[in-house]
């Protein structure tokens, strides 16, 4: 099976905001604000194929058949903790969406993900799941999170990140060829510590002012 494409959302507004986020001297509050704004624009792209139905409404002038979103509610799934920054922006656009959380930490020795938390809504086989994590670095966390979601019954899944490393994309597409990736940038490579280069550092630390 050939892998689903990677969609790079290269709109000038996204690229401009991302440049400010990358700068080491950008303050925490500004970083969070920009991440939320970029999440709006990524959300717009990842939901482009949502199905619409027609309902009859009254405008002040006449009756019309108007489009509205159909079907079961979406579910955004945040990979903790940095996923929450993207999640906030997504929820601004779709406030009625359900929200799931998955907690994975990266073992510093093996760089492999270890699960410590999972909470998801019901009716999983009827929902579109949008899994969010700002950094697709090794790809191990994203793959583990999505495989776990599948075990839990999710069938329709898309993945959104802010930055992706080529190594992470390769791992992801090998394991999950049917899951499309949406990102604002494909960066150059990973360093020996699993950080994306040029990247923006540790997304969680930059969002929350930790070290
Ligand atoms: N996680 C981050 O927060 N940053 C990276 O560069 C890689 C993984």
TL;DR of this structure?
Its cofactor is Mg(2+). This protein has 211 residues and is α/β, with parallel strands linked by helices.
How would you describe this structure to a colleague?
The chain is α/β, with parallel strands linked by helices. The chain has a single domain, classed as Rossmann fold (3-Layer(aba) Sandwich), CATH 3.40.50.2020. The chain contains six helices and 14 strands. It has a seven-stranded mixed β-sheet with strand order 1-11-9-7-4-5-6. A three-stranded parallel β-sheet has the order 8-10-12. It has a two-stranded antiparallel sheet with strand order 2-3. Helix 1 runs antiparallel to helix 2 and helix 2 crosses helix 3. The longest helix is centred in the first third of the chain and has 19 residues. The radius of gyration is 18 Å and the shape is globular. The mean pLDDT is 95. Uracil (URA) binds next to helix 6.
